[in-house]
Cytidylate kinase
Amino acid sequence: MTGALRGVVALDGPSGTGKTTVARKLAAKLGAGYLDTGAMYRVVTLAVLDAGVDPLDADAVAALARAVRCEVATDPATPGARLDGTDVGETIRTPRVDAAVSAVSAVPEVRELLVQRQRTLIEEVAREAGGVVVDGRDIGTVVAPDAPLKVFLTASAEVRAARRGAQDTAAGRETDQAAVLASVERRDRLDSSRVSSPLRPAEDAVEFDTSDLSIEQVLVALTELASTRGLLDEDVVEPCR
């Protein structure tokens, strides 16, 4: 039987590498908590758009980020997100938010605010559940630099665009594959070149290319990594509360 996770697994990577799906499934498999930090930036981005604030107006974006209540679920069995108490779990995954989230995420004040919230959540969930899997773009480098296991997932832009297009189709959204690929490449450029917490692997991260791997294959590999790092309690898996 797979052991329960004890400690923090930091899972980073660009859009479309499967990190959110992998992180949630890994947390469920190992009886751990789960935190999707990207969802927090998406909630703030939705708030910015709904308020009619220009995503490039850093001061206005930062002020709004301080004013809104951003909540994300930490149970892998019931992922979700709320903006000022309203369920926005589906809305934050739309192309409208996709197009603006990099600009909002690049605002240093927004990152500072959300990183502090993320660190608090990680501490709380790890204390309650014993372990937590956290995914994002700066977990291993900024949010949880002391995590005993850091993984940086990669995949080719074409593969990632195909995955994103499939997700949109499954969700009933119209898909233009060329536009999706352009969006993926644009997000890569913006996330990798921003001044505050740019997307990059931590020096001690394990880099893992998921281009030709199924979700299950990635899960098996990450479970083995956690085991070799001594992060699995080989007793009974406890359900995440």
In short: Residues 236-241 have pLDDT under 50 and may be disordered. The beta strands are 4-5, 7-12, 33-36, 70-72, 81-83, 86-87, 131-136, 149-154, 206-209, 232-233. Residues 108-129 form the longest helix (22 residues).
